Amino acid sequence: MGDEREGHPVASLLAIAGTGQNGATLLCRMLGEVPGFVAVGEIGRIWEKGLGENVECSCGEVFFDCPFWKAVGERSFGGWHRLDPAECHRLAASITLGRSRFPHPFALPLILVPWIAPRLRRDLEAYAELLDKLYEGVRAVTGADVIVDSMKIPGHIYLLARQRRFSPKFVQLIRDPRGVAYSNTKKVPRQGSRADKPMRTTRTPRKTASKWLWFNLAFELLRALRYPFARVRYEEFVDDPEAALRTCARQIGRELAPEDLEFLHGRTATLTPGHLVAGNRMRLLRGDVELRLDEAWRRELPSSDQRTVERVTSPLLRRYGYRPTSR
Ligand SMILES: [Zn+2]
Predict the structure, then answer these.
(1) Which residues of the chain have pLDDT under 50?
(2) Is residue 323 part of a domain?
């Protein structure tokens, strides 16, 4: 898989793009069960969650005790201690112009044409190099020929689109924005050792809708520029996961054989723990996981909020096959 450079086989990189609350972590983990594939989750948050907070990896060990990440750190950087977490975090923030909760849209054109901002360009190049070493370490430690990344956000996707080494391919995972909006209004308990901390803050339906719109417009722009994007809708993924996995694998030129999908029985996936350091609580599930369509928003999201979301997302709503409710 992939091409050969300097005598080393180069892995393919499959990156999931999307808005959050869209099943990306689950899709990433299911892809990671395919032989020869490895799921790394929200890799761009490893500096904050791993190096910074030493959170629990999905294998159950904390980051610095996880044998997988220990080996990757050794291979990529000669050990994690050789990196300055604050500097890594600063470089990672360059793809959002320093904003973490709601990435800055102006960052995206600057990633595509960085020469107009030389200082940012240096940071972006340094960050791309850091990610490159990380993916290379993952490839070397696992021997996998496909790395699946569920970082999702436009800045990360744009940065990957500009890098050549792993010939990245993209899957845009789209969910009905009313479902995303409803999920974002629910308070979610924090994970693991942070379970006692305040619950994750919620986002108003209007804010979710504008984020949904500009994220998806950002991905549409890359698609229009002929970067390799496939679309998968969350609702279809949940209904027929096998078809969604096949669509994803085709992005990197792979036809899945029945033995590649032995972990999947209809809508039930048998998941091994894996080594995801960041991602939503789906990263911690293991064993048999049944996929179920979550359409609680139809009952629970007030119709005025539904209409707000429909209005804000109208430039793309129908295009992605979602119908406004006529109430
Ligand atoms: Zn681990």
Answers:
(1) 1-8
(2) no
